[in-house]
Amino acid sequence: MMTETRDRILFALAAVCAVLLSYNFYKIFLVLPDEANQGAIYRIVYVHVPSIFTGFTGFFVALAASGAYLATGKLKYDAFAAAVTEVSLAFATIVLATGMIWGRIIWGVWWAWDARLTTMLVCWLIYAGYLMLRRAIDEPTQRARLSAVVSIFGCVDILIVWKSIEWWRTQHPRASPQRSRRRRHGPRNGSAHLLELAGLHVSSGHSSNGPNPPRRTLARNRFPPPHGPLLLK
Question: Could you give the CA distance from residue 198 to residue 183 in angstroms, rounded to a whole number?
Fold first, then answer.
């Protein structure tokens, strides 16, 4: 009975996810015009940014589950943390991949050792190490305890990722999302971010007025290629 109920819930989540993502991709690719400075590549933001929030949300949920295991010793919390971390790492991979594609078009390079990019890569490596650690240790209690510690360190790095553009000089865009949407895409287009975020959150749960007219301008003038060492402000 419980298995049947769970299957129905998973089916419902998959259906909601399909509807949300289908509508949102229709709006992104067929309704929204090209951005004034970046052209068509700006559309990748509607996958990149929601993936960040979905992945980071999952990592903090895993942190809470790991804390629950440390407090109670119940392995079900550890199993839940591991499942959530697997899904969140997939979204972190999407973040890195879409960021590299955007950087290749805007900066002219696939990768730059920028503060935001580097700290995000470190975050990805921490959680990839989390999953490798779990496969390397057979004893359940020791595996759960060490995994919880890695999860804590991972969430500390998430805070560094979040604050990196304030602590260091960085090429990563710093504009306020609200200001950026109003200036470049018009006020209504922010709903695409919210719909995509909702769709990706549902997807992760299932797995664990008019805009500006387009203009052809060279985006590299607005986002120069990264150069020089990263310095503290």
Answer: 24
Q: How remote is the C-alpha of 6 from its chain's centroid?
A: 27
List beta partners, residue 35. 39
DSSP-derived secondary structure for 187-198: GGGHHHHHHHHH
CA 133 to chain centre: 23
Q: Could you tell me what percent of the chain has a pLDDT over 90?
A: 43
Write down the pTM of the prediction. 0.72
Joined tokens for residue 75: 């392995």
Contact between residue 95 and residue 120 where contact means Cβ atoms under 8 Å apart: yes
CB 165 within 8 A of CB 120: no
Lowest average pLDDT, out of 36-50, 83-97, 105-119, 207-221, goes to 207-221
